[in-house]
Amino acid sequence: MKTLSRRLFLTGSTTLLAAPAILRGTRAYARTPVLKVGHVSPRTGPLAGFAEADEHILAGLAERFAGGVENNGRGWQIQIISKDSQSNPNRASEVTSELILSDEVDIIVAASTPDTVNPVSDQAEINDVPCITTDCPWQPYFFGRGGNPAEGFRNTFHFFWGLEDVIGAFLSMWDAAGVTKTVGGLFPNDADGNAWGHPELGLPTPLAAAGYTLTDPGRYQPLSDDFSNYINAFKAAGCEIVTGNMIPPDFGTFWAQAAQQGFHPKIVTIGKALLFPSVIQGLGERGPGLSSEVWWSPDHPFASSLTGVTAGELAGGFTAATGRPWTQPIGFKHALFEVVADVVARAADLDDPDAILAAIRGTDLNTIVGPVNWATGPVPNVTKTPLVAGQWQRDGDGIDLKIVANATAPQIPLTGALQLL
Amino acid sequence: MNALHVTRQTRLSLTTLILLMPALVLLTAAPWWAGRADLRLMGEIALYMSLATLWNLLAGYAGLVSVGQQAYVGLGAYVFFALTLLAGVHPLAALPLLMLVGAGMSATAAVLLFRLRGAYFAIGSWVLAEVFRLTFAQVSALGGGSGISLPPAVVRALSDDRWMREAMAWWLALGAAALVIGVVVLFLRSRNGVALTAIRDNELAARSLGIDVWRTKFTVYVAVGALTTLIGALIFLQKLRISPDAAFSVNDWTAFVIFIVVIGGLGTIEGPIIGTLVFFALRQTLADLGTIYLIALGLVAIAVMLWAPRGLWGLVRDRWGLEIFPLSRRVAGLNEKGH
Q1: Does residue B254 lie in a domain region?
Q2: How confident is the model over A271-282, as a mean pLDDT?
Q3: In this structure, are residues B175 and B49 in contact, taking their beta carbons and an 8 Å threshold?
Q4: Lower CB density within 10 Å: C or N end of chain B?
Q5: Alpha-carbon distance values, B33 to B26, B29, B36, B318 (Å)
Q6: pLDDT higher for A236 or A6?
Q7: B265 located within any domain
Q8: Residues 6+ apart with CB under 8 A from B64
Q9: How many CB atoms lie within 10 A of CB A5?
Q10: ipTM (interface pTM)
């Protein structure tokens, strides 16, 4: 057997010692550099409905991203690392720090309700990682995190609509209906409920300005089992409209008790609870006729900047692949990654977080949910997408969410007329 | 030396004690050798280990099976946020203050809860935690039901430098775990500890021996309450954001802790430590699987209860009579024939 010669040993060990010096390099010199995007979303738990389309959307994007995204003449691989928040703000904060510290992601994205976007954004802010979020009204996001409109945040950005849009959309629907202007308000003691019911920033002031009388008996604790006090107060005030922001189980309880106690409002427009077709079907005969805010639908006249598909094609693709009806978060989940791809394409230097932040600030993109441009937001770090109002109506054998009021965003076509309950 | 005498020391416990010092030094130096992610994970492990050790002292030694310890985790977190955010106290100065609040609250709660026994005590402690949760949900200065974020300025008060901040968070977590385990070991070695063991084995017999059962349990409950508030504050210093549902989460701060103690071995100091390591090993490998992760945790719990009802450490101790922390007394100086 050949023994190891002294000369070979010396060359070999020197090469081994010297190797790290040449092999290390930086990412920019590797053949295809990889940009890591961390994605936090409530895949399991009570908020799982919001993340229902995650797998379908991510699979579609993986296909699109397979060719890489071009930045400054170089192709970049985009790797998406997705983590489940289990619908728990504690877990959302843990997985975000895992993404930042162990996966060393370059950009964090998150979606769906303040319980997901707020803890994720807080971790990104303190750890100096660029962060883009959506699918949560901007007031609970901005003021819920102690945001100061004069300063804004450094690392965290958000696109969605705000309460002023909800109010505008609801009012345009109610005004046209010709019912008595008495409204009952149902606001829970949670991030959304406190923001919606806030005396100045929420519904009360604008409703009064528009000539509506609001009966607001106070905040109820989420997962209440008795709404008799509220129903009695609404009956006493002669409310013909009921509005608020609820989670589906609370609305189910309220709606059943309203029927038992003989309270029959003519319009019921509730935020958050009535977004998903499964919830409406669960209410049986009393489901159709309820109304809700509409942030996205297959009839929105927008198309993806990334793949070119229209809103209708994206929704249709989801239904064809899964056999389930379309839901509103689908469009926003797609748009989130449209913004990421756009930022990746425009950033001056993807190895520099400050350059990525500058690219986010300079975003001006027409996405599948509407224009995203942080220069035009109501407060720093926030930009708004259009919002209209819709009503669940029978459509053949099933039900469909028809857009019945669009005064707030006339570019989105009406698809039905409001029917009183 | 060969004379018959009673000792607590074994060769294993002596070795451990000697190894403990270098191990602590090594862990203290972790910011220099561990990565940021490892440091944070180790901090979380240390805090969960403390929670498990404290719950084990309550349930395993004092027989107080509480399912409401999240009351004190949440209390600590909220008082910490109130002191730093509203009163402008330095984060480090807030820690001893909030332990005083925790001791005061748990002393008051003990007077009420100790009227209940067994399963009634368990439910009562849970009700107490819910009362805390609903109360803090009404405090609008701390965000009410919406929750509130710790502004970066408060976190930066610890240190402006990111490395230093992360190192300090780790030292606080490690210090808290060392404090908790140290206090529990010393307590169990004291007269009170012996009294506690007697109460655990038979409360009536202990009382007839002249042990003040109520006072012993009271001391344990208040000490555990105060230390749990400290751990709660440290946990939420890492999380940066608080809301009533997160701070008073029965799943995160009690169910997982009970799982850890049951897996590791109830009524042993070593049990919660082993249990925490097993729990984190499972979490790090399975948490990305969604619901399957929780099913796996349930299966592990069932398997341990069926085949090792005294936990993993109970299995080791029954088999080899090992004990790392010198607690039980044994006769030394016996030769092979037993003389």
Answers
A1: no
A2: 90
A3: no
A4: N
A5: 9, 7, 10, 37
A6: A236
A7: no
A8: B58, B121, B217, B220, B221
A9: 10
A10: 0.74
Rounded to the nearest angstrom, the gap between the alpha carbon of residue B57 and the centroid of all alpha carbons in its chain is: 8
What span, in angstroms and rounded, lies between the C-alpha atoms of A94 and A101?
Answer: 10
The domains found in chain A, sorted by start residue, are 4-161+299-383 (3.40.50.2300), 164-294+387-405 (3.40.50.2300)
Residue A54, chain B, CB below 8 Å: the answer is: no
Q: Amino acid identity of A233?
A: A
For residue B9, tell me if it sits in a domain. Answer: no
Structure tokens at A325: 């009806």
Mean pLDDT lowest among A120-129, B104-113, B187-196: B187-196
CA atoms within 13 A on the CB side of B206: 20
What is the token pair recorded at B184? 């529990």
SS3 content of chain B, % helix, strand, coil (to 5): 75, 5, 20
Amino acid at A361: R
**Nearest-Cα residue of chain A relative to residue B38:** A102
Name which of A120, A122, A115, A165 is nearest A140 in CA terms.
A115
Nearest CA in chain B to A139: B146
Cross-strand partners of A270:
A244
Residue with tokens 């399963």: B119
CB contact under 8 A, A146 and B152: no
Q: Strand, helix or coil at A223?
A: coil
Return the residue in B239, B251, B254 with the most chain A beta carbons within 10 A, the one to mutate for interface testing. B239
pLDDT of B320 over the 90 cut: no
Two structure tokens written together for B261 = 């103690």
Distance CA A56, CA B218 (A): 56
Task: Report CB contact under 8 Å: B36, A101.
Answer: yes
pLDDT above 80 (res B336): no
In sequence order, the 6+-apart residues with CB closer than 8 A to the CB of B148 are A144, A146, B81, B85, B142, B241, B242, B243
Number of A to B CB contacts under 8 A, please give it: 92
pTM of the model: 0.81
Instruction: Determine contact, residues A71/A49, Cβ cutoff 8 Å.
Output: no
Measure the CA–CA gap between B173 and B226, rounded to whole angstroms: 16
Find where tokens 């060393």 sit.
A104
The tally of domains found in chain B comes to: 1
pLDDT in the model for residue A25:
42
Reported as type and span, the H/E element at residue A219 is none
Taken as a whole, chain A contains a residue count of: 421
